[in-house]
Amino acid sequence: MSVYEFKAETINGKEILLSEYEGKVLLIVNTASKCGFTSQLEGLQKLYDTYNQQGLEILGFPCNQFNSQDPGSNEEIAEFCQLNYGVTFPMFSKVDVKGKNAHPLFNYLTEEAKGLLTKQIKWNFTKFLVGKDGQVIDRFAPQTKPEELEKAIQDALK
């Protein structure tokens, strides 16, 4: 199994197969617009600007499960991310990342890369690095700043 076996809806409502990203390195992040870590969108965009041409895709999945920190509509979230942080990497429709309604992609990611104390995602901006083969390489905590991922991304792109 790999991430390429899943599908997701873009923030604009178009369903896509993640196999469209086959052969790319992916950084999959559950985002939120009103979180203490929201400024990481800027760092994620910098990573995208630096490494996209080399094969990195960043996939943002808004989530409202942690203290209701992303209450807006998909349209409001897209506008917020673009206007405030210049986000141009792919954003997807708001999803649950834990619990009985969790998106199947996040069930897979958390099975493949369990957290420190639990496999469940504990907060916004948990990051999953996925190799070109669609396999999960590593999981990074919300506190891990995007710039701290550079070495891991460079290694995955080789």
From TrEMBL:
The active site is at 35. GO terms for biological process: cellular response to oxidative stress. GO terms for molecular function: peroxidase activity. Residues 1-158 form the Thioredoxin domain. The keyword Oxidoreductase applies. Pfam families: GSHPx. InterPro entries: Glutathione_peroxidase, GPX_AS, GPX_CS, Thioredoxin-like_sf, Thioredoxin_domain. CDD domains: GSH_Peroxidase. Keywords: Oxidoreductase, Peroxidase. This is Glutathione peroxidase. Signal peptide: none annotated. Belongs to the glutathione peroxidase family.
